[in-house]
Amino acid sequence: MLGKEKESNSSNLSETDRGYEVADPKEFYTDAQRKMQSEQDSSNLADAMAAAIVFDELQDDHRAFIETRDYFMLSTVNAEGEPTVSYKGGPVGIVQVVSAKKLAFPSFDGNGMFYSMGNIADAGKIGMLFIDMETPHRVRVQGTAKVSKDTDLMARFPGANMVVDVEVTSVFINCARYIHKHKRLEASKYVPNEKGEQPFPAWKRIDLLQGALPDKDQGKAEEAGGLITAEQYQKALEEGQS
Q1: Residue 167 pLDDT more than 60?
Q2: Nearest alpha-carbon partner for 172 in 59, 68, 80, 42
Q3: Nearest CA among 156, 152, 61, 141 for reference residue 108
Q4: Which listed residue, 92, 162, 203, 224, has the most CB atoms within 10 A of its CB?
Q5: Nearest in space to 66 (alpha carbons), one of 169, 171, 187
Q6: CA-derived radius of gyration, the chain
Q7: pLDDT at position 8 over 70
Q8: Under a CB-based contact definition with an 8 Å cutoff, are residues 217 and 203 in contact?
């Protein structure tokens, strides 16, 4: 557990008197992590790292990096302890910094499984990895989350069907030495625009799925180019044209 946040009447992250504390290594790590650190002779290093880089609220450099990202990796766990990880893409600023302790991000139209959102409703514990594959650079966030349809939060993300409200519990910059550099080509055409509009996805045109689509998607396959088979979709997927 991290140190208690000091009281402050300001939400401005740049104020020098903003109160925060770094991690107490004895509380930040679990018993299993401490055991492995001891076995690998890294206890002192782990203590130094936690004390130096792990914060209980966002710092200016964390905020600046997060607000320039148009994707991140989201890890969640369900009530039975089964984990999953998901790529979440959108416009630049897909995750917005509400305050030093609060983040918000949208859930856009997907495959209807609501796998990550259901996990958040189940357990409320998440991990977020923000990564720049070109520089490279990355920031890790851990937090307690809840699914929300708060009007003000929803208004921040046109096209969202719900929003995730995150209470930051820890944040730190992570070493980038094993990140393979990649060159960015283009943003996905499916990212909702400022009106929340987006192209109809190819997989929703698959003939076998038509009867299972939500009411809002019924009949749109013909308007988007007609029905396709699962085999046609698979080929398009393999060719990067889905």
Answers
A1: yes
A2: 59
A3: 156
A4: 162
A5: 171
A6: 21
A7: no
A8: no
Q: Report the C-alpha gap between 204 and 224 in whole angstroms.
A: 10
Fold of the CATH domain 60-173? Pnp Oxidase; Chain A (2.30.110)
Q: Round to whole Å and give the CA distance between 92 and 68.
A: 6
Q: Where in the chain are the domains?
A: 60-173, 202-238
Residue 172 and residue 57: Cα distance in Å, rounded?
Answer: 9
Q: Are 97 and 63 in contact (CB under 8 A)?
A: yes
Residues counted in the chain: 242
What residue spans of the chain are helical by DSSP H?
Answer: 25-28, 31-39, 43-53, 60-66, 115-122, 151-155, 220-223, 230-238
The average confidence (pLDDT) of the chain is 91
pLDDT digits (tens, 9 = 90+) for 9-59: 333 444 333 455 677 888 899 999 999 999 999 999 999 999 999 999 999
* Token digits of residue 195: 């009106």
Three-state SS sequence of 23-54: ECHHHHCCHHHHHHHHHCCCHHHHHHHHHHHC
Please measure the distance between the N-terminal and C-terminal CA atoms of the chain and give it in whole angstroms: 44
d(CA 92, CA 185): 15
Tokens for 135, please give them.
């520089």
pLDDT digits (tens, 9 = 90+) for 118-131: 999 999 999 999 99
Which class for 126: exposed (0-12), middle (13-18), buried (19 or more C-beta within 10 A)? buried
- Helix (H, G, I), strand (E, B), or coil: what is residue 236? helix
Q: Report the distance separating Cα 158 and Cα 197, nearest Å.
A: 8
Which pLDDT tens digit goes with each residue over 92-106?
Answer: 999 999 999 999 999
Do 106 and 163 touch, CB atoms closer than 8 A? yes
